[in-house]
Amino acid sequence: MSDVRTAPTNWFREEPHDAAELYALELYGQDRTLKKLRVNVRDVAGTLHVFSVTLRPTVEASVKRVS
What is the pTM of this model? Predict the structure, then answer.
């Protein structure tokens, strides 16, 4: 099964879905081996929200003509 993490209370005071995404991205910055994890987020009303987050790093190239 996937790794389970719990976001800190009121993580960035974002909507639970957004908080799960931000928390997973922060964890990925600390551990690049993470691929899929479950993130628990408790909202300001105390309701627990559970999300499955899949991390897929991508490469993007932006090309501009300079001359």
Answer: 0.73
